[in-house]
Specification:
7-stranded parallel beta sheet, 3-stranded mixed beta sheet, alpha/beta, single chain
Length: 296
């Protein structure tokens, strides 16, 4: 049995779909507050559902019982964040530590953890939660795979963070000249699933990006070519991002500003070693542009 934690999220949902398509047994941990439509979609895949919460250790023990592998993509950021309730500290840090402990107690054989790109090193609550979890997992005695994905195309090249491809407008963080290895959420899920059967992924950390490192301005040019119209581009200076981070009043605001600073710095990843360990065909930014703009 494969337990997926974060199953109603973008990556976790794709992990469940891929495992189900392969005919593998899947158990999805969902919260009582999870989106009913997403829960129903998992049920329609034939996924076994179990109620649980990273803040409730007893529910984690029950969810892990009988599982051979755990894949967690869960995070309080950005969509499930609730100040004082569902936070980076009690979900991304303490909740994941509790999940590791529950997995170890249940005799789980393999634990797959989705973290952040190694190069995202700005001091933020999110990074300060995930890096200690990585260390804890490595020292837990569990067979582990740690995933270090770069910036998700479906998030960072979407209207949610200012890349409004429908209206040909883009907010760029920094000068827009630093290359980033944008990665599709589907490919992150594919790496997570493939790592379960890859000897090279055992007790390993996989740096993950797309097939090309492209600057945000190069990405804009791709969307202009695919969509057939020019973009209106606005750049946010690094100094403004630094001021935003310093003025942040809660962990999510501070973490998001830190990620924007790393975007401005760039995150180019050499994928040769990762693809030797887990060979996959990666989706490009142009593939994503054709998908969302709807024009080849």
């Amino acid at each position: 049995m494969n337990l997926v934690v974060g199953a109603t999220g973008m990556v976790g949902g794709e992990v469940c779909r891929r495992l189900a398509a392969q005919g593998q047994p899947v158990r999805a941990m969902v919260r009582t507050t999870s989106d009913p439509a997403k829960v129903e979609a998992l049920r329609n895949l034939g996924v076994e559902l179990v109620q649980g919460d990273l803040r409730d250790r007893a529910s984690l023990d029950a969810a892990c019982r009988g599982a051979e592998a755990v894949i967690t993509t869960a995070s309080a950021m950005p969509f499930s964040y609730r100040p004082g309730e569902n936070t980076v500290q009690n979900v991304d840090y303490q909740g994941t530590i509790s999940l590791i402990d529950a997995a170890r107690a249940a005799g789980v054989r393999h634990f797959v953890y989705t973290s952040l790109s190694r190069q995202i090193d700005v001091d933020t609550p999110l990074g300060n939660a995930k890096r200690p979890v990585e260390k804890y997992l490595k020292e837990s005695g569990l067979t582990y795979t740690i995933l270090h994905p770069s910036f998700f195309s479906e998030v960072w090249l979407s209207p949610a963070v200012g890349f409004d491809h429908s209206n040909a407008k883009a907010t760029i963080y920094g000068t827009g000249e630093k290359p980033i290895s944008w990665i599709s959420i589907r490919d992150v899920a594919a790496f997570a699933v493939a790592s379960l059967d890859s000897p090279a992924a055992r007790n390993a950390t996989l740096e993950m990006g797309g097939p090309q490192a492209l600057s945000p301005l190069e990405v804009v040019h791709i969307f202009e070519r695919v969509g057939g119209r020019p973009f209106e581009v606005q750049c946010v200076p690094v100094e403004a991002l630094q001021a935003q981070k310093q003025a942040a009043t809660d962990p999510m605001q501070e973490s998001f500003a830190g990620l924007m600073l790393m975007y401005a710095k760039g995150d180019a990843i050499d994928m040769r070693e990762t693809l030797l360990a887990v060979p996959l065909q990666l989706a490009s930014v142009e593939d994503y542009a054709k998908q969302v703009v709807g024009k080849a």
